[in-house]
Design a protein that fits this description.
Structural class: alpha+beta
Number of domains: 1
Distance between the termini: 13 Å
Oligomer: single chain
Strand content: 15-25%
Order of helices and strands: EHEHEEHHEHH
Amino acid sequence: MILGGPHVGKTHYVGQLYLRLTDKRRAAQYALQMTVPPTDLTAINHIIQRLREGRSAGHTPSGFNEVISFTVADRQGQQVALTFPDYAGEQVQSLVRNYLIPPRWQEMISQANEWLLFIRPDEIKPLEDVTNRSRSHLVEQRPRAKEALAQGELSAPAFYIELLQMLR
């Protein structure tokens, strides 16, 4: 199962993986080969079209919930079914914000053998080291901290820790 918030590349990853596994010219160089393609190509065709145009796979709409599934085999013939729920990253934010895992998510989590967590490290703001700040700076930051606390806003590291704790 691929996990991640909005704009981390979950859909893009699935599209790139699918394109590589279906590229007949380069198939021999890959350790995995697609043995059973997706039964419904609707979701993947849109992704592929955008990638072939040199564009990003695009943002998955909030209410969108599709599943892309295909089977791959390694060189020894060991098969693995890959299932990728394609969902808007805002749904993951909602899980943590509401401290609630809906039944659909509970099912996806329980059926997943492995998780792949997508994070964009360059978009995570570094935590401020308060030991290196003056007292006046800390006093200036108090209103912002109170506002963030009142809104239930978590830092990115705290968000991911909370997410993983909820999903285990």
